[in-house]
Amino acid sequence: METEKLILGYWDLRGRAGLDRTMFAFCGVPFTNKFYSTPVDWFGKEKQEIDLDFPNLPYLIDGDNKVTDSKTIAKYIALKAGRRDLLGLDDDKKFIEIDVAYNAVNDLQYYIIKLVMNKNGDFQTEKTELFEKGAVKTKLDSLSKKLGENEWLTGFASVADVFLFEVLDLIYDMEPAQIENRKNLADFRTRFSALPQIKAHRESEDFRDMWFYPGMTAWNNTPNQ
Ligand SMILES: N[C@@H](CCC(=O)N[C@@H](CS)C(=O)NCC(=O)O)C(=O)O
Predict the structure, then answer these.
(1) Is-contact 212 206, C-beta < 8 A?
(2) How far apart are alpha carbons 95 and 97 in whole angstroms?
(3) Is 209 among the domain residues?
(4) Looking at the domain assignment, is residue 210 inside a domain?
(5) What pLDDT digit, counting tens, does each position of 159-183 carry?
(6) Do 78 and 10 have their domain in common?
(7) What are the pLDDT digits (tens) for 23-62?
(8) pTM value?
(9) In this structure, which residue's CA is closest to atom 17 in ligand 1?
């Protein structure tokens, strides 16, 4: 019987590791956060010394298994939990459908991260463009259409739903109307966050609600900023 908890290394915030923490909670896999509070904590020494093929944050350590990339870590957690169904591994068609949806959500996250990382750009103008006419609008509309009246994005629970929740929650914190105006996405977000294991996680010490470090991005957790 394994007793050692999996270790998730990341900054002391939500960021990209939110997906993995939510996935741990969704699958009921215990884990320990290893927080890096300052750049020097990670870049100073540990990044050079840690035994990872591609040193980065987040990383996951499970005994001899060492994994990087937030999206791959989420898949590893599903496997660890014996939830191959969450990856569609029981059916080729499902596997592809989930992966397409997972990557669509990844695109959405990419647009938002790119926007907030551009500290010296015209944040308000770029945000309005992206949200009202650009790539964020298009992708949210497609995700809303794909979800339709279903409970889950592809019709059955998958890793794509966990990622969708994370990114919808980020957009909600940034611009609540973007989610509120798409009723099925708003209902999905409410439903997912009310799942007992997700609610418990969000009230636990493992949860972080700060998306980015203040001062390092064009946006921090204030709605409509
Ligand atoms: N594709 C990677 C991107 C990882 C990444 O960009 N990590 C950022 C934080 S979100 C970082 O600060 N990495 C530390 C480093 O570059 O060593 C993932 O999704 O995990």
Answers:
(1) no
(2) 6
(3) no
(4) no
(5) 999 999 999 999 999 999 999 999 9
(6) yes
(7) 999 999 999 999 999 999 999 999 999 999 999 999 999 9
(8) 0.96
(9) 56
Atom of ligand 1 nearest to the CA of 58: 20
Domain containing residue 102 = 86-195
Ligand 1 proximity of 47 Cβ (cutoff 6 Å) = yes
Number of H helices, E strands in the chain: 11, 4
Asked if 188 and 113 sit in the same domain, the reply is: yes
Q: From atom 9 of ligand 1, which residue's Cα is the shortest distance away?
A: 57
| The pLDDT of residue 3 | 56
138 in a domain, yes or no? Answer: yes
Atom of ligand 1 nearest to the CA of 10: 9
Structural domain tally of the chain?
A: 2
Closest CA relative to residue 221, chosen from 162, 176, 165:
176
Q: Is residue 218 one of the residues assigned to a domain?
A: no
Torsion angle (degrees, nearest 10) of CA 225, 221, 193, 152 = 60
